[in-house]
Amino acid sequence: MSNNSSKEIEDLVIARLETLNRNAKVLLMGKPITVAEMLEEVRNRTELGKRIVEVQFRMIQSLSRGEID
Amino acid sequence: MRPRYDPPTACMHYFSESIIGAIGKEYTIINLEGPKATKENFEKSIRKGSPRLMVLHGHGDKDSIAGHNGHIILEESNIHLLASTITYAVACDSAQELGEIAVKKGKADAYIGYEAQFMVVIDPTRSSTPSKDKNMKVFIKPYATTVLSLVTGRRVKAAIDDTRNVLRSLIREYGRYGVKDKYGDAPLIRFALYWNLIFLKGYGDLSSVVF
Predict the structure, then answer these.
(1) In a domain, A69, yes or no
(2) Considering only CB atoms, which chain B residues are within 8 Å of A16?
(3) Residue B202, phi then psi, degrees to nearest 5
(4) Which is deepest, B103, B137, B153, B158, by most CB within 10 Å?
């Protein structure tokens, strides 16, 4: 995957996360985290942030292929 | 193994009530909950009770699972305790390495776990009372499906497939227009369900059965 397309995917995921309720909270089996904090993880390219991008992108692909919708 | 000392462990403790309620009368359950979820009790109960199926909750990382107050109860040094068992671990990242170690070194028949943090969406206004949290309740069904499939004689692979099917069905349900979604959390719930779907993994002999 090129740097350009990685950046595009990251931007796409950020755009999707920005549509969510920023105060909604996810309980990871490690710590509670809000959507706003998830966005920060993505923007800071932490390990968790990279994982969120990967999963969101795979979900978008699955949805577009009609695998889960 | 059901520690309960912080919000994530309280959530899983609540989830497992549904399992105990469903199968507690038919099967003998060794219930190490709250402060009883210690390494000493864990090891003693396995030696004494020789359970065929182990359901473990708690914090974890790629090579260990923790019990009460975050103290490690399972790691490579005592992995032999899983010999000839089927284990379902809901603990962060534990499937990443511990699953392989459990099967190869510990001689477990099979190990089901998550290769990342198990994810649950919560209603922040209800986070101290899991039983009133409608967001959290969505995640009970797929969790319970794994255990109930196993105890009803389904093979490990079938139990994983059953769980994935329930997750897919819930993802579809939460994508429908008109789903009950007071706080607009449905898209996040779908994401969390999808997260759990792709990180759920089985190791070892997936044709194993509990009974």
Answers:
(1) no
(2) 187
(3) -120, 145
(4) B103
CB-CB neighbours of B69 under 10 Å = 13
Disruptive mutation site among B114, B166, B171 for chain A (greatest number of A CBs within 10 Å): B171
Q: The complex's ipTM?
A: 0.88
Looking at residue A45, what is its pLDDT?
Answer: 94
Has residue A1 got a pLDDT over 60?
A: no
- Asked if residue A2 has pLDDT above 60, the reply is no
Q: Is B116 on the interface with A (CB under 8 A)?
A: yes
User: What strands lie across the sheet with B119-122, from one edge to the other?
Assistant: A32-34, A25-28, B119-122
Q: Residue B172: which of A24, A59, A69 has the nearest Cβ?
A: A69
pLDDT number for residue A7 = 86
**Stretch among B66-70, B170-174, B181-185 having the lowest mean pLDDT:** B181-185
Domain that holds residue A25: 3-64
Residue A5's CB is within 10 A of a number of other CB atoms, namely: 9
Tell me how many domains chain A contains. Answer: 1
Residues of A in contact with B173 (CB under 8 A): none
Nearest to B89, CA basis, from B69, B63, B124: B63
Q: Note if the pTM is more than 0.90.
A: yes
By Cβ distance, the residue of A20, A28, A62 closest to B187 is A20
* A37 in any annotated domain: yes
Residue B142 C-alpha, separation from nearest chain A C-alpha, in angstroms: 15
Residue A55 lies in a domain: yes
